[in-house]
Amino acid sequence: MSEIVTRIADNVGISPDKAETALGMMLGFLQREAADGPVAKMIEAIPGAAELVAKHNGEGTGKGLLGGLMSAIGGGGIMGLGQQLMSQGLGMGEISTLAKETMAVAREYAGADVVDEVVASVPGLSQFV
Q1: What is the model's pLDDT at position 12?
Q2: pLDDT score for 26
Q3: Between the CA of residue 47 and those of 25, 31, 56, what are the distances in Å?
Q4: How many CA atoms lie within 13 A of 44 on its CB side?
Q5: CA-CA to 45 of 20 to 30 Å: which in 3, 69, 88, 113?
Q6: Which residues of the chain fall short of a pLDDT of 70?
Q7: DSSP state of 14
Q8: In whole angstroms, how far apart are CA 104 and each of 41, 52, 58, 76, 124?
Q9: Which residues have C-beta within 8 Å of that of residue 117, sequence separation ≥ 6?
């Protein structure tokens, strides 16, 4: 997982620690929001992904007024994830690049068909990846 985190950190332009947290949050979001079968295959295929989700899955949730409101109305979907990532200090450009890099890594390990199923099962995700 460390080489994946380093690759994402370099491509997004953020520290490895921030990349690890953001990647764990993003994968955790997908685990909660995407279709169970495809997302389980995807996370299982990426070395260290399950541990990263377990470590960072809830980080950033409920921070700030918007995060609290989003949680109160059902987690906020993509917008809720964006708020969580912004609370970690990421800007919109970094979040967009992070999403694309995460999906590129997932495609390498799990295959395009599995990742396409995951993306298709989360409303609004396709416009970001």
Answers
A1: 96
A2: 93
A3: 16, 15, 16
A4: 7
A5: 88
A6: 58-76
A7: S
A8: 15, 17, 23, 24, 18
A9: 35, 37, 38
